[in-house]
Amino acid sequence: MAESEGGEYVRQSAIEFILHPLDTPSAVPAPRCTHGSCILLARVFADFSGRPPSFFWSCATHRSSKGCTVHIDAARWSQAALRKQGWLWTKHGTSSATQADSGHNELSLKSSVSHHAPETVAKLSTLSDDKSNAQYFFDREATEFIMSLVLQHYGELSIASPSPIPYALFWGCPTLFESFLKRPQTSCPSEYGILADLDVRFRVMFEGWKVCNLNMCSADGLESMQSLMSHKHIGAVIIDPPFGIPLPALARSLHHVLLKQERQPLVCLILPYFLESAVTEFLPGLRMLDTRIGYSTHRKHPAVH
Asked: Of 171, 179, 181, 184, nearest to 266 (Cα)?
């Protein structure tokens, strides 16, 4: 931050997400940190100095250096020789651990929580870092409303096309997934529900059901999700992204999830109302509903959306 002549504080720079052509063979492959594929960002200077943007790769899971220190200069990463060596540049120097697999961390965590997983999401000890993994679970009214949209949609799908039954993807929505599993239904049986969440504890809690790790920013884990499906059809995607997520990155990830879908699925995205213009810019097919969504675990704003 810097102070202007009038005494007001103005932002000197901002971080912007840069679309990276993942499907282009000639594109520079994204580096990886211990949390998966990184995303390409640009620091844009707004102080009228004429400085060009500064491009760098950063963690797709943590939006703060407290969660992950990976910070890779894009120009240096573009040098093929350096990529072959597998070096990463972080704020604390150079590291050779670029090819680390997040699967090892997940297995370790799964082992450590296997005997302490609660029976319900409501009893789970929530994570609290707003810049990486904060968890705010829907309250009962919000859960009932969103599930009514999903079930209504599946009822209509069963009439229009009785088979195959499309999958319902609950992306960052464990309370909805839990509610989905508890509801006896014929239009979309519980085995067609998929929970995508970065918290490995849900793999223990919902052991035996379809649970995967799918990053909203980088689409990392897409193949893992697809391996749970007996066919490619998706009927609904419900997304509760972390506040501050780059919407272009989320839109790109959603595009990859829904690639080659024959029917347009139901897509529900839960975000604050003041982001409507940004949502419609990057996800033009969505429209805002006049519905207040509350969270049972949000200390300051139990019903802020």
From this structure: 171
Whole-number Å distance between alpha carbons of 99 and 89: 13
Query: Residue 52 carries which DSSP code?
Result: P
Dist CA 63 CA 130 (whole Å): 9
Query: pLDDT 10s digit of each residue in the chain, 305 long?
Result: 333 333 333 344 466 666 655 544 446 778 888 888 888 888 877 666 677 888 888 888 877 777 788 888 888 887 764 555 554 444 433 343 333 333 334 434 444 444 455 567 666 666 655 555 666 788 888 889 999 999 888 888 876 666 788 999 999 999 999 999 987 766 788 899 999 998 888 888 888 899 999 999 888 899 999 999 999 999 999 999 887 788 888 998 999 999 888 888 999 999 888 888 989 888 888 888 888 888 776 555 444 44
